[in-house]
Amino acid sequence: MYQELKARIASYNAELVAVSKTQSNDKIVALYEQGQRIFGENRVQELVEKYEALPKDIAWHLIGHLQTNKVKYIAPFISMIHSVDSIKLLNEIQKEAAKNNRVISVLLQFHVAEEETKFGLDYKEAVELLETYFAPQNNYSSVRICGVMGMATNTTDKTQVQKEFAHLKNIFTQLQNTYFGLEKDFVEISMGMSGDYELALQEGSTMVRIGSLLF
Ligand SMILES: *Cc1c(COP(=O)(O)O)cnc(C)c1O
Q1: What are phi and psi of 21, to 5 degrees?
Q2: 211 lines ligand 1 (CB under 6 A)
Q3: pLDDT digits (tens, 9 = 90+) for 115-152
Q4: Does the model's pTM come out above 0.90?
Q5: Are strands 15-19 and 38-41 parallel, antiparallel or unpaired?
């Protein structure tokens, strides 16, 4: 299952984030032994415990909502934060990354689904955030914005899901053209989960976050 899925994702030049939330360390190690190195978690405490217990060459991604007061616990080791949805959070990541002499890669999370509950920015809020990020008087040298992330509506309506992924891709392209020019760091579109990763890959995903299908 794992090797097949990985090959399928690789054929789109995308990467697999194995979402290991709620999974035991043994199950994570089993996947690690098959070659998986990127794992995603959505809760800080669980993430820190797993980081401490598991091999140190795992690249840990935080994919769930992040409270500013918890950034300090993951700043020493986190590889990527997918869920930046405010300037306040970006500021805190900058501060804690600098303290640890690190540059932390982040994605801007967008709200593209119909559900009210899902976190994320809209385009206008992202513009405001990026104006701040790029303002010459501000220093964001310890945080690197690498792309966008989003979740589609949880529905069996494929057309709806496809539309939302296309919308996220559109946002990505527009931001890339407007703000990042030739900067080579802004390249990631994190979209697609167990139920919709095929559609996401077809719509240009560079990172799929898959949990239940894998474990
Ligand atoms: C849990 C989770 C996933 C993985 O969901 P599955 O349906 O188990 O593949 C992906 N992204 C986020 C943000 C999640 O919280």
Answers
A1: -55, 140
A2: yes
A3: 877 689 999 999 999 999 999 999 999 999 999 999 99
A4: yes
A5: parallel
